[in-house]
Protein: Peptide methionine sulfoxide reductase
Amino acid sequence: MSLLDKIEELREGYSEVFYRNKKYGLNKTVFNGGSSYKIYAEELAGNDFISLNFYITSKDHLLKPCEMPKEKVIDFLMNCSPVKG
Structure:
């Protein structure tokens, strides 16, 4: 599954996800008719956060983490799962 697939799987607006056995509040905003995304997630019982922009161009998909390593963002996107219930 690609990063874009995982991003598109996330609900637009606010939702809660699990990542590494911790719960995060996640906000996903879609811009430009679905060609760019802003995702911000905060650990609900801690101080960790994830922040990124993702752009779809005619030539490529661009992941732009906000002041954090790209690997951290990729790991979060690929391993977070929606809170059921």
